[in-house]
Amino acid sequence: MYEAYGYEDVERPSWLDWTRLGIGLAARGIFWLCFVLIVGNAVVQAIADDEWVLAVFEVAFFPLTFLIYPFAADPLAQAWPLADGTNLIPFLVAAVVAYPISTFVGGLPPVE
Known about the structure:
Blueprint: H1 15-48, H2 52-60, H3 62-72, H4 89-105
């Protein structure tokens, strides 16, 4: 049936499948990079301020830390790796855009 359309092996992935997977993996990688950057920055800043209990809570409630910390962070914070007070909101926006791309365009399953 598919031979009429030029397909010899229907089960073999096409170049479009590989491209879709590549886009998905790249977007998911961007998401995790931004996620680790935001949560890591929050934890390192809390440790630098000698607020160890806050650092533990930031790790324990990492989804909330990821969503809230970019807005609540001190603009002049001196934390890893952004010791110049770089705003974290662009990283949050990049992560929020990259995740749906990895799921819908890339076809990767959602993180559970």
